[in-house]
Design goal:
The complex is a heterodimer of chains A (about 300) and B (about 280). Chain A is mainly alpha-helical. Helix content of chain A is about 75%, strand content about 0%. By secondary structure, chain B is mainly α. In chain B, helix 3 packs across helix 13, helix 4 runs parallel beside helix 7 and helix 5 packs across helix 7. Chain B is globular. The chains are: A mainly alpha (about 300), B mainly alpha (about 280). Chains A and B meet through helix 1, helix 3, helix 4, helix 5 and helix 6 of A and helix 1, helix 4, helix 5, helix 6 and helix 7 of B.
């Protein structure tokens, strides 16, 4: 005899799958299927400039070539440098900003509004604003530097790898610190105030409270922000495409831009696909770390 | 409020500095966008001697900036509408219904939100070329679903979880079917969440660059970020027009963000802060 409760569960399950199916099918079709195709493509030589060569299977040939590719190693180094610089600056500044926003009770709305706008605008626009600030002729940075006598000749920021990184890093910090700050602020606001009150009653100082209450309880939020930012910084494309184009030469070119150039400038689709797979592999490893390490509640039971 | 004395003043001072840092590039761009081209290159700094609307005029007459705006609106709008419609169904099931594989699907959705776009750009290009969709609107909407769909589902799951389940149970006891419960009880309650999700998804689509750059060929299909990034003058960057265009692209996003800032912040942080 069928148990009506289990009938009900079965109906619920069927209903659930009907609702999930369209979205799931979309994601599989537009994201997972192309990813599989990338892997397949990466095992072939596919040079769109020389279509008469066909698409011979080359096994791991493309990957072997990448291992010996100095420009790829360079790109990986630039990406790591960019990620390390921007993420560490953004975490420190973001924490500082969140702590300050959590304390100031008046004007919090104004601050939030002011810092949200850089986050919300297109990265391309952010890059252009900073490119203008650092423009060798029209830029205000040079005008100020010359004005205060810090330099005799206005520097040309974008012709030298070391100086080209300055606007790149500043622009990224400007654009994404708000996101970090808001994540951390939400974390701060979820810490019960009673903890601080109790600590204050026990005579604990502000510094002690920060070290023993705030930071430990903020750990999950800090970790989320850290991993989100790391993944994002590792994929950097728009910002550098617009600010330096990867130059001078290829001295600021990150892996995403190198991959893009291999695909759409050199039209080497097999090689570009192999680069894509490597970028994906690194990002996926980082993402797994996030999902595992944080134990984000996925089961539906909140907190 | 906690604390007082100099600590609060220090915090306020630091915040004021940061606000200035956040706002300055916009203010500077605004000034430059109404400065005559010749003055711009006399060396930066200084208030313009004469204000001009030339850059904005040139933007909409010579450069047809309406075209990328229309393209962006169509592509971002279509993507958002599709994602919210389809994503809300899935999100409700994932938030509320009991079925096996739920946690796995949620983990999968979260993982896809972190996909690097560059890793699927080459097969998408080959696929769209095969389907003759390069340089078309569907040729952008389709790739945009790769990031917009998982984002929408992930955000909406958070909102559906916040709706009290008692109302659904009451509706079921009153004899409503599951579908009726969803459409007549849950969806109306979820409207604020759906709106916030739509806003965030729209912003992500409006700002997208890599796919739009890879899958469009000419100015007739360029989106706003691509159009601005590819602005070129004959000899130098036409800064006046570039900055005018940047501000035009920023204005709607800024307006929406300012109008809905509380909700947007909530939406942004809800998925991430539990742990």
């Amino acid at each position: 005899m069928a148990d009506p409760r289990s009938d009900d569960l079965r109906a619920e399950r069927r209903f659930a799958w009907t609702l999930v199916a369209p979205a799931l099918a979309t994601i599989l079709l537009v994201a997972v299927f192309p990813l599989g195709w990338t892997v397949w493509e990466s095992l072939h030589r596919n040079d769109l400039r020389m279509p008469w060569l066909g698409k011979p299977f080359v096994g791991l040939g493309n990957y072997a070539e990448i291992l010996a590719d100095g420009r790829f190693r360079g790109a990986l180094g630039h990406t790591a440098l960019f990620t390390a610089l921007t993420v560490s600056l953004e975490m420190v500044l973001g924490l500082f900003l969140a702590l300050a926003m959590n304390r100031a009770f008046r004007g919090r709305g104004v601050v939030r509004a002011a810092i949200l706008v850089p986050w919300a605008i297109p990265t391309v626009v952010a890059a252009l604003l900073w490119r203008f600030l650092f423009d060798s002729e029209a830029g205000i940075v040079n005008a100020v530097l010359v004005g205060v006598g810090a330099v005799d000749e206005p520097p040309v920021w974008f012709i030298n790898a070391a100086t080209a990184w300055v606007p790149v890093v500043l622009a990224d910090v400007w654009k994404t610190t708000p996101f970090v700050a808001l994540l951390l602020l939400a974390g701060l606001q979820s810490i019960p105030t009673e903890l601080y009150e109790a600590a204050a009653v026990d005579g604990a100082g502000r510094w002690w409270q920060l070290r023993h209450i705030t930071l430990p309880l903020l750990r999950p939020a800090l970790l989320v922000a850290l991993i989100f930012r790391t993944l994002d910084a590792f994929r950097v494309f728009d910002l550098i495409y617009v600010l330096t184009g990867g130059g001078p030469g290829t001295s600021t070119e990150p892996v995403a831009l190198y991959t893009f150039n291999a695909l759409f400038q050199n039209l080497r689709f097999g090689y570009g696909a192999a680069l894509s797979v490597i970028v994906f592999g690194i990002t996926f490893a980082l993402a797994l770390l996030y999902i595992r390490g944080l134990g984000v509640s996925l089961s539906g039971e909140e907190r | 409020m906690k604390g007082g004395g100099w600590g609060r003043w220090a915090a306020a001072g630091a915040l004021a500095l940061l606000v200035a840092f956040a706002v300055f590039p916009f203010a500077w761009a605004l000034v430059a966008s109404v400065t005559p081209e010749a003055e711009l290159f006399e060396g930066g700094g200084g208030w313009p001697r004469r204000l001009t609307g030339d850059h904005y005029r040139a933007l909409f007459t010579e450069r047809d900036f309406w075209v990328p705006i229309r393209n962006s609106l169509v592509v971002a709008g279509a993507t958002t509408a599709f994602c919210v419609a389809v994503g809300s169904l899935a999100a409700y099931a994932l938030a509320r219904l009991r079925f096996r594989g739920k946690a796995a699907i949620l983990g999968f959705v979260l993982a896809v939100t972190m996909f690097p776009q560059i890793s699927i750009v080459s097969p998408l290009f080959l696929l769209l070329r095969e389907l003759r969709l390069i340089n078309t609107y569907p040729g952008l909407v389709l790739p945009y679903l790769t990031f917009a769909m998982p984002l929408t589902v992930w955000l909406l799951v958070g909102y559906f979880r916040q709706i009290p389940p008692d109302l659904e149970e009451a509706a079921r006891i009153d004899g409503a079917t599951r579908w009726q419960t969803f459409t007549r009880v849950v969806l109306p309650l979820a409207v604020p969440g759906l709106a916030t999700t739509a806003i965030l998804t729209f912003i992500y689509c409006w700002n997208e660059f890599l796919f739009a750059l890879s899958f469009t060929l000419g100015p007739e299909r360029h989106t706003v970020p691509v159009a601005i990034a590819l602005f070129r003058g004959q000899y130098q960057v036409p800064w006046g027009e570039v900055l005018a265009a940047s501000l035009v692209a920023t204005a709607p996003v800024a307006a929406v963000v300012l109008a809905f800032q509380r909700r947007i912040v909530q939406g942004l942080t809800s998925g991430a802060v539990k742990g």
